């Protein structure tokens, strides 16, 4: 049986990326600290809005800087062999209404933070990429062959 790789681009890739990041929910957000070191912290992806921005919730300790800052988001579903990577510009958003809309009761606990330490982050993606089984995850193989790949410049 031949394995093929299916590539998605453009609107198809964006639509599938939206589904993936909202399904996978928790990601590691990589930023630079004050000394320029790369650091990563867990975040919860709450939604990808109509303009393509990702709305995340993070512990304030891992939220990064206040002004726009570069981020990398890494998503993993080991069991389903689904992976997504998002590079973009992020900013902390002080919007109590949006935070209340996106918050869930167990969110702070999942992020290892007190509810008062949760921060709202908006990420505007610049480059996005994902990989998943082309057959929807029905293959037990761990080989890259047979994977669906999507890449899009946002």
Briefly characterize the structure.
With 154 residues, the protein is of the alpha+beta class.
Helix and strand topology:
Elements: E1 6-8, H1 10-24, E2 26-32, E3 38-48, E4 54-59, E5 69-77, E6 82-93, H2 96-102, H3 107-110, E7 118-133, E8 147-153
Parallel strand pairs: 1-8
Antiparallel strand pairs: 2-3, 2-5, 3-4, 4-7, 5-6, 6-7, 7-8
Oligomer: single chain
In the predicted model, the low-confidence regions spanning at least 5 consecutive residues are: 137-144
**Annotation, overall tally of beta strands:** 8
**Tally of separate helices:** 3
Give the CA-CA distance, first to last residue.
Answer: 35 Å
The CATH superfamily turns out to be Electron Transport, Fmn-binding Protein, Chain A
Order of helices and strands: EHEEEEEHHEE
CATH structural fold name: Pnp Oxidase, Chain A
Shape: globular
CATH architecture: Roll
The biggest beta sheet is recorded as: 6 strands, antiparallel, barrel
Strand content: over 45%
Helix content: 10-25%
Strand order of the largest sheet: 2-3-4-7-6-5
Structural class: alpha+beta
What number is the mean pLDDT?
Answer: 78
Any idea what the radius of gyration is?
16 Å
Q: What is the total domain count?
A: 1
CATH class: Mainly Beta
Please provide a written account of the structure.
With 154 residues, the protein is α+β, with helices and mostly antiparallel strands. The protein contains three helices and eight strands, in the order E-H-E-E-E-E-E-H-H-E-E. A six-stranded antiparallel barrel has the order 2-3-4-7-6-5. About 5% of the residues have low confidence. It holds the Pfam family Pyrid_ox_like. InterPro entries: Split_barrel_FMN-bd (IPR012349), YdaG_split_barrel_FMN-bd (IPR038725). It comes from Microbacterium jejuense. This is Pyridoxamine 5'-phosphate oxidase family protein.
